[in-house]
Amino acid sequence: MARHSYLLILGALLRAACAFELNLVAEVVGGAAAASWAFTTFQDSQRKQAVSAADAESKERLEERRQRAFIEPRETWRESELKQYDGTDYDGPILLGADGKVFNVWRGRHFYAPGGPYASMAGRDATRQLAKNRLDGDPDYEPDDGAPLNPAERASLALWVASFEGKYDVVGKLVDGD
């Protein structure tokens, strides 16, 4: 359709030029330029409205997910209490313990929910996994011997905890015992 319109405009221009009707040529060119500008402006406006609507919808979905994943912070948590927040409820909170802190990692649910690469850390104390930079059950490593963490492992754990503090909500302290 647009190609047909351009051909009509081009034909009118050629006819006008042949008849030396320069005023008509200027009028057609000016009209075509104005129409092109108006159409482009209209398209830009429509595109901006669509993006704005999509952004609003995305923000609304994020807020709904945030509300479903919210968990009231508590003074203390025990590891046994974390188990019910292991990501099996994909829209609910996902809790992970690390170095005495409990994080709600729901924003990273694609990592921590079942099937995710770090699912073995969800709903439990992941301190040793993070410190040793390995996942429980990884066939490339011997099972964790439970020995005290060495300085390099403590440093690695500190980096993980600092990273989590920048991304996830701290919802309490992890205490020993069930």
Automatic annotation (TrEMBL):
InterPro entries: Cyt_B5-like_heme/steroid-bd (IPR001199), Cyt_B5-like_heme/steroid_sf (IPR036400), MAPR/NEUFC/NENF-like (IPR050577). Keywords: Signal. One of its GO terms (cellular component) is endomembrane system. It comes from the Eukaryota. It holds the Pfam family Cyt-b5. Residues 77-175 form the Cytochrome b5 heme-binding domain. Residues 1-19 form the signal peptide. SMART domains: Cyt-b5 (SM01117). SUPFAM superfamilies: Cytochrome b5-like heme/steroid binding domain (SSF55856). The keyword Signal applies. Belongs to the cytochrome b5 family. MAPR subfamily. This is Cytochrome b5 heme-binding domain-containing protein. The lineage of its organism: Eukaryota, Sar, Stramenopiles, Ochrophyta, Pelagophyceae.
